[in-house]
Write a structure and sequence with these properties.
21% strand; Rossmann fold; 14 strands; single chain
Length: 365
């Protein structure tokens, strides 16, 4: 197998060597060069044509964000950002994702990370996955900070499809929430979530539960960012939250999210039980818990991400009652892992480009 060529960009000589050594220890990867700042990175990308780049955010001369903007416009290549877990670091991370970064790694101990070896597996796996990312999808994804009013206006014209007519049971009418949307995503997810949530109306007649694979310290910033862009209310989920229509709840990094009935309400629970599929939060855990909630119509959405988290949970969810599943298409997925697993298992009722997922959700709702 041909080795993946990687360029390492960091202003610290120590970090450049550390990251290069960690990556080089994996036989799938060849570190072809390093750069000290964004300006040098741009020059080296032209010279070395790497398959993937790791890039620090804070650098002199030209920082990581400005360099990323130029790279994605002039010579697109998959970039994995290295980010600190500070509030500012998290905000910079999401800006980088909007500019076109495939993914990010959270430095375990701030800017000078002496224990980077702790994330060796995550680093190598994400670089390998990034090298296979849908770079065309990254470049063409043009919804940064925009509302998609045109899509919202067209929804009123959609006729309910006969095959998805659902009969309300006596149990259902006893609950405050009549239908529920649950979304699972991973690599490329923040931008996909931004697109879908922006295209949903603020008066949506359903709550939304979201599992985005992401470490602790980042999900709160993601929720805040999406809340500012979407007509929906978006928040990081908290233990005991009562689900409300028109609100999206994002599982906090490091916690599994489940939901259960409490009288006429649906209530969120968070726990630190062992990771599933290497993830906490896990989409499988969320879907399985919702399988135990009867009398509510459920729309499950699986979008871009590596691996197959969500497939087994969706299988269990579908056995529990009326569920409609939407998977993101290969054409728009940054990483076509999670959606592929669902589609190939025959679990998807609808496969849609990211531009049409909100429309599909509203059709089922």
């Amino acid at each position: 197998m041909k080795a993946i060529k990687v360029l390492v960009v960091d202003d610290s000589a120590f970090m450049r060597k550390l990251i290069a050594d960690l990556l080089s220890a994996d036989e799938r990867i060849q570190v072809v060069g390093t750069a000290r700042n964004g300006e040098e990175a741009i020059r080296k990308i032209k010279e070395l044509t790497p398959d993937a780049v790791t890039m620090d955010v804070e650098m002199p001369v030209l920082n990581g964000l400005e360099a990323l903007k130029i790279i994605m416009k002039t010579m697109p290549v998959p970039v994995v950002m290295l980010s600190s877990t500070t509030k500012e670091g998290a905000e910079n991370t999401f800006t980088a994702m909007e500019y076109g970064a495939v993914d990010f790694i959270a430095k375990p101990s701030g800017p000078i990370s002496l224990d980077m070896h702790k994330i060796k597996t995550e680093l190598t796996d994400k670089v390998v996955q990034a090298s296979k990312a849908n770079i065309k999808g990254l470049v063409n994804f043009s919804v940064i900070g925009k509302k998609s009013a045109g899509f919202k206006q067209s929804y009123s014209k959609i006729e309910p499809h006969q095959s998805i007519h659902l009969v309300r049971s006596a149990v259902e009418t006893s609950l405050n929430v009549k239908q529920l949307i649950c979304i699972g995503t991973s690599t490329g997810g923040p931008r996909a979530l931004q697109k879908v949530l922006n295209d949903l109306p603020g008066d949506l007649n359903a709550p939304i539960l979201i599992v985005q694979h992401m470490p602790a310290g980042f999900t709160k910033s993601l929720a805040s960012r999406l809340n500012g862009l979407s007509a929906l209310s978006v928040k990081e989920a908290e233990e005991g939250d009562i689900l409300k229509n028109g609100t999206a709840y994002i599982a906090p990094g490091g916690f599994h999210l489940t939901a259960s009935r409490s009288g006429r309400d649906l209530v969120i629970h968070l726990d630190k039980s062992p990771p599933r599929n290497g993830h906490r939060p896990s989409v499988d855990v969320m879907f399985e818990s919702l399988g135990g909630v009867n009398g509510i119509r459920k729309i499950a959405v699986i979008m871009t991400g590596m691996g197959s988290d969500g497939k087994n949970g969706l299988m269990a969810l579908k056995k529990s009652g009326e569920v409609k599943a939407i998977a993101e298409s290969k054409e728009s997925s940054i990483v076509f892992g999670m959606p592929r697993a669902v589609i190939e298992s025959g679990l998807a009722d609808d496969v849609q480009h990211i531009e049409r997922i909100a429309e599909s959700i509203l059709k089922f709702v």
